[in-house]
Structure formats: structure tokens, C-alpha cells
Design brief:
alpha/beta; FAD/NAD(P)-binding domain; 2 domains; 6-stranded mixed beta sheet
């Protein structure tokens, strides 16, 4: 029997869609080319905040606030804890210019109703003793938590499977054929699949999957390099974020997760000594403790960045039953629940509670 809905992609967006669709009683088949969380979801900082690491575009703010609460609600359905750590995000400025930028960012977050705490360098070091004396200023956003991304992806999918959905691994989707506003077939390395609806949640690979259709979606891969350190005793519950897109968080297991810049190098999935050396020096300057820890693992992942920094959520002009949910950039975890809920509403109800007009596929038509 054919599934009602095929979801292409077993990352945090695809599994969130499976979770919310299954809660509506719909039967879903998830097709994943590799393994669960193999793409950006396996290399994410998994920070969920209201406000984010920079100004949140106005169209994204309702999705931001909704997802923040929906993820915590979803955890109640999951067999395992998400290892949520509610320490807030501490944005550290390393010079006077960055301190000025923090002041502007403080005003932006406060407009979203978040009561932040702006501090000078000495106050910042009292708030977070891991910070070194070269920190110029800091801003604490309390509306922020971080979690285990693998448990989130597994929780979304496992709950969907319990409700009758299925997953197949090792299935590489090569294209989707449509005709007369209907899905013709999903072409894969393991033969053709058929369903009434298809959701493309393939992250940075989504444009390849949709390449035969009329609208070309400008999502590109952005590489992020990551270091995972050895575990140590609990030092902080904060996420420590820097204005040059570096970030530090300590996992529930005690390891430090150190994330890096965004690099536009295509699908070149490798670690570079130049970048690792540069951002390691920056981390140790800001948090001297890190210089005494051993690195256990170096890895990289591709964030799906859309050219206008908004995700793509909605039907393809070629076929209203072919839905795209991709292009969430560095914030797939942060927006996952809201995206999954919106896709489930689009398919089950024909409309969404919150407007997704700004994320429509047809904004790229006629290019």
C-alpha cells in the first residue's frame, strides 16, 4: 500500500514534519539517503532561542516563538529526554565595536518582549566565570535553551513510527515527477515510489531534488566546522556566542561543542587546518579553560542557506501537493517544530495558523 505522504530527508525538518503529520493520523514514509541526522542536523549547535544570534526577520518571529514552546511540548511525547539545558545564551563582545553591536542587538531582542541583561566585561565574568579578562561586554538572553539534536530527531521520528509511519534508509531521491497538479512518481536509486503528497526536506540537497521543475530554489550549502572536546565536570549552562559566528556550549555529557564560521565552498565536506587553528585561538582567548581540554573529534556539516535568509515552506507552483520545507540555514533545530506543524496544517487543512506567505516558493518565480 502506498503511503499518503512521502517525506524526503531524515533530518530535523523532515522528521518534525513526520511527527506533526502522524499526530494528525496521516501515514508517512520518510526516505533518507544515509542515516538519521546525517546532514546539518548532526552538526548543529542545537540552540533554541527567541531572538537568535542576530536580528530575526519579522516574518520569522511567529515561527520562532511557536517553535520555542512546541519543542518543549513535544518532548512529553518522546521516550527519551532531550537533555534540555536552560541556561540562556550569553553573547560576548571582544572589542569596543562588538560592544556597540551588542547594544543594538539588546534593543532588537527587547522589542520581541525578552528582558535581557547587558553587562560590561567585569560583570560578564562574574555572570560566566569561564570568560577571560579580554571580554569587553556581554548580553544575556534568558529565552534560550540548548539540547541534544540526535535525541530531537530520534524523538520526532520514533513517535511518528509508533503512530504507523515508516522510514527507509539508503534511498537517494533523484527527482520528483509531477503532472496535472498530481505527483507522478518519486525517482530513486531503489526504484519509483508513489504517494498523494511529497514533502521535500532535503536541506542543501533540495535544489537538486527539484531541479527538473520550473522554479529553481536558491539554497546553497554552507560548511560549518566543529570541534568536540573531551568531557569534563559541568562548567556552564550558558551557550556562549560570539559576534563572528563562533559559539560554545557544554553538552549534558560534559563535552564542549565548539562551532565555527560559515564557509561557502560547495559540498566540500572536509576539515581545514587554517580554519580550525584560527577559531581555536579565538575560543581559547575568550575562554582560557578550553586550552587545557583535548579535542576528541573534528567534523563539518552543510547548513542549507537560502539567498534571502528565509526558509522555503510551501507548495511548488508546478504541483500543489509537492511541498518544500528547506533552507533554514543555521537554525533548523530552532524552527523545526513550527515548520513541521505548518506543513501538517497545509496538508491536512489546506491552510496554516500562522502566515507562511513570506516563505513561499513562488517568490523565486520568473528569475
Amino acid at each position: 500500500m502506498n503511503p499518503e505522504i512521502i517525506i524526503i530527508g531524515g533530518g530535523v525538518i523532515g522528521t518534525a514534519c513526520a511527527y506533526f503529520l502522524s499526530k494528525r493520523g496521516l501515514k508517512v514514509l520518510v526516505l533518507e539517503r544515509s542515516h538519521l541526522g546525517a546532514g546539518a542536523s548532526g552538526t548543529t549547535a542545537s540552540i533554541v532561542s527567541i531572538g537568535g544570534s542576530s536580528s530575526t526577520p519579522k516574518p520569522l518571529q511567529p515561527l520562532n516563538v511557536e517553535s520555542y514552546h512546541l519543542i518543549l511540548d513535544a518532548e512529553q511525547d518522546f521516550e527519551r529526554s532531550l537533555e534540555v539545558i536552560r541556561g540562556g545564551t550569553l553573547y560576548a563582545a571582544m572589542n569596543e565595536q562588538e560592544a556597540l553591536e551588542l547594544k543594538a542587538f539588546d534593543k532588537e531582542i527587547r522589542r520581541m518582549g525578552i528582558d535581557c541583561k547587558l553587562m560590561d566585561g567585569s560583570e560578564a565574568c562574574r555572570e560566566e566565570p569561564l570568560l577571560g579578562p579580554e571580554v569587553e561586554a556581554a548580553l544575556l538572553n534568558p529565552a534560550s535553551y540548548h539540547l541534544n539534536p540526535f535525541r530531537l530527531v530520534d524523538g520526532y521520528l520514533s513517535t511518528a513510527l509508533e503512530k504507523g509511519s515508516r522510514v527507509e534508509y539508503g534511498v537517494e531521491v533523484r527527482g520528483v515527477e509531477v503532472s496535472n497538479d498530481r505527483i507522478g512518481r518519486v525517482v530513486t536509486n531503489k526504484g519509483d515510489y508513489h504517494a498523494d503528497w511529497v514533502v521535500v526536506a532535503g536541506g542543501a540537497y533540495s535544489p537538486q531534488i527539484l531541479s527538473s521543475l520550473s522554479v529553481q530554489i536558491p539554497i546553497v550549502p554552507a560548511r560549518g566546522q566543529v570541534i568536540l572536546t573531551e568531557a569534563c565536570q559541568r562548567m556552564t549552562d550558558h551557550v556562549i556566542m560570539f559576534l563572528n559566528h563562533l559559539y560554545i556550549r557544554q553538552t549534558a555529557s560534559g563535552n564542549f561543542y565548539l562551532g565555527s564560521h560559515t564557509e561557502f565552498v560547495g559540498f566540500e565536506n572536509r576539515i581545514t587546518l587554517e580554519k580550525i587553528t584560527a577559531f581555536t585561538k579565538a575560543f581559547v582567548q575568550a575562554v582560557p579553560l578550553l586550552g587545557r581540554l583535548r579535542a576528541l573529534r573534528f567534523f563539518a556539516g552543510f547548513r542549507p542557506i537560502c539567498e534571502d535568509n528565509l526558509p522555503v515552506i510551501g507548495p511548488m507552483p508546478d504541483c500543489s501537493r509537492l511541498i518544500v520545507a528547506a533552507g533554514h540555514g543555521r537554525a533548523g533545530v530552532r524552527f523545526s517544530a513550527g515548520t513541521g506543524k505548518a506543513v501538517s496544517e497545509l496538508i491536512a487543512d489546506g491552510e496554516t495558523e500562522h502566515s507562511i506567505e513570506a516563505f513561499a516558493v513562488d517568490r523565486f518565480a520568473g528569475r
